[in-house]
Amino acid sequence: MTGRLATYAFVNAKFRTRIGSLYDEPRLQTFEHAGSLKEFLAMLAESDYADAADTFDRTGDVSLCELVILDAERRIYAEVLRHVEGPAETLVRALFRRFEVESLKAALRLWFERRVRQVQNEHKLAYLPAEPWPPGLSGEKIVGCNNAEELARLFGSTDYDISNEAAAIPERKNLFYAELSLDRIYVSGLARAIDALPPRDRAPARRLAGVQTDIENIRRIARLG
After folding, report:
1. I want to staple 197 with a disulfide (CB 3.0 to 4.6 A). Which of 68, 84, 142, 201 is the partner?
2. Considering just the CA atoms, what is the radius of gyration of the chain in Å?
3. Among the listed residues 48, 87, 43, 91, the one whose alpha carbon sits nearest the alpha carbon of residue 71
């Protein structure tokens, strides 16, 4: 019992300290009240989000800035992974797969832009996450697919089999169902990891998973809007 409590106390402290530095509420409120985009970027450059500000300066792409911020959070999870084992490690690894899903979504959006909307976006390839990518998939492989059939075959040979949704992207003219399927794969894996926890730990883990699901649903609605 003591060992488990010590592990959870360490993990909780690590997450609260590192993620708190990224999502500090007073700082976010300061960003919110910036008088102009220039002022906002200046504030961003003086914070833990400096890499995001630099990315925006170079690309003007808000989506790429989101990826930079997400990568900062990914590094926190990667650090925690080095200090846990057993069911706790399984849970953190399942949570970590969210970053794989976000990498896949980013690559899909570039593929959609290039192949469906016919927009030249080679300059954006350099800003895809360097990691993590699941086995058999990478930004280059996804964006390099010449059509939806190739894309479907690529995904169909991996743990992220969204081949049916990928094949239907040109007809639907959106990525909604493809991204939703990726989220379902992630949530299913997270549910299995939670079920492997000791019984007393499952309820708080399910609450955490519920919060993450709510956040992703809000992001999806915002994109549709």
Report:
1. 201
2. 19
3. 48
